[in-house]
Structures are given as structure tokens and as C-alpha cells.
């Protein structure tokens, strides 16, 4: 679940992305300050818009924001008050973390993609399909996990690339909009000493 807010450019609206719409046609229903956006084909809720957000609580950040459990309780109370199911679940885990490629094989249906097994925590490895020319086993890099919002606003969801499942994205300095990022393809390369699962910190992980 992704929370995003930009009062200056969008207005006083908290946008909550709950699922990937997968290109399906969408519809919306509004009750009071709450609007539910859903797929027409199956009724799945893909997003919520909370209008006049600052009447509920202030949000100082812009772009992707991370709420406290108490703030999510307030949002669920608002949904319930308007007759919607109160099913927002807070996820405070970092979405950009240090990962290490522990296995890599060529994609069977591509001449430039690789299927990588990437360790993103001490007890978690995910599959990521990537085309970075510098990807190799043992490389540590920054991984955007499902639920991440990239600096340009695109969202990371589980998906497939040419028939192979992918659960995140290994990031280049340019994609992370780091200062003086090389304008070429290639994921960020971190020191071997970096600890897998550590939350991304631009000041620590980039000296561009």
C-alpha cells in the first residue's frame, strides 16, 4: 500500500494506492471526503482518495509518505464513517534496501535480460528480472521492493517480464535521481561491506 501526498501540485488529497490496476478500466464512487477507485471488471479496490486530508492530520512530507499506525487508524475510522470497509493496513518496512545478487541466469526469451535471485534481507530472497549490463553474482545494489514509489512517480508492483515473474527493481543512480548520476545504463554498485536489508540512505550509499 502506497501513500502519496502533494498539497501544492495536487491539492489537499491523500492518495492511497492499494493494488496494480493492470491496465483495467476504472470507476470511482465517492462518499463524503472518501473516494474509492476500483476495477470495473472485478470490483477490486485499487486506490483511495482522501479529500481535505489536513482536517484529519497534517502531512509535512511530499511524494511518497510513510504514516504512523495511529494515522492509519484515523483513516480507517474515516472510511468506516462513510460506509466503506476499514481495511487499510500500514506497512512501515523500508521499500528501498541494499540487496545482493546471489544467483543469475539468462532469460530464456531475451538477449539482454537476466533472471536474478536477489537477497534483500537475512531471511528473504526475491526474483528480479533485469537488463542492467553490470549485473553479476555478488554485486550489492539498491533494490526497490513492491510498494515503492520511484522519484519520477512510477510505482513498483510484482509483475512479469517476458513470462518471468519479477518482484522489484534493481536501481541505477539515474533512476534514483542521485546527484551527478551517470547518464547511462547500469545499477548502482555498492561496497562489499554494505549490509543486505539496510534501508537506502543517499548520503551513505552515494558519493557521486
Automatic annotation (TrEMBL):
Single annotated GO MF: phenylalanine-tRNA ligase activity
Broad EC category: ligase
InterPro entries assigned to the protein according to its UniProt record, in alphabetical order: DUF4479 (IPR027855), NA-bd_OB-fold (IPR012340), tRNA-bd_dom (IPR002547), tRNA_bind_bactPheRS (IPR033714), YtpR-like_sf (IPR037154)
CDD domains xref list: tRNA_bind_bactPheRS
Gene name in the database record: pheT_2
Domain TRNA-binding: residue ranges: 90-201
Protein name: Phenylalanyl-tRNA synthetase subunit beta
SUPFAM superfamilies, sorted: Nucleic acid-binding proteins
Sorted UniProt keywords: Aminoacyl-tRNA synthetase, Ligase, RNA-binding, tRNA-binding
EC number: 6.1.1.20
